[in-house]
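thought: fold this chain, then report.
action: predict
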Amino acid sequence: GMTMPFIEKFDSGSYDTNYWNISPYGSGNWYFSTIDGLYEPCVAFSAPKMSEYRESFISPYVDARNSTELYASFSYGATMTGAADLQTLLFEVYDGENWNVAKEFKYTSNKEDLFYARVNISEWGAGKQTRVRFTAVGKNESYSIKWAVDNIRIYDVKDEVVESAPVNFKALRKEDGTVLLTWENIYETAVLGYGATPFPVGLARSNN
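observation:
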């Protein structure tokens, strides 16, 4: 399996780099997006119209045999029009025999924000070779539905990032008058903006 901490930012633009898989095989509904994420690209899911669906984006095995307290963290978000209550993103962990739902996400925002999630997966993954997957589940009649996932980490608690002051602070004035502020925080790159668009695409905020 992959060594820990396992970090996936999708910078390569290919899920083959770190051996991700899609189920059902050959589905084109999970794909790489160059317009979403915390500094693009990220992986995204676009729901097929006029159908019920259940499709997964599956990580490689990660070697957590020496871990006693195992965590996963990632950014996620969604954009939808209509029937939001019918759409769910499951974060699941493989325990060697079965997939277990560790966290369930519903669409909660009418903006294209990305939220931060940190999940204790020790119950299913610590002390073994494990893997995780993101499963989009729902029923789509005719709506536009998209999930986005970025900056995935699987790590032992001893590898937790130590909190510190923001670093690499930058300011960018855009042509429309918006000022975009970026910095690196305890978990990942966070983006904040104000001006013409108060909260532009890519804002990372905690939703624990």
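thought: worth noting. Residues 113 and 176 are 20 Å apart (CA to CA).
final: tokens above.
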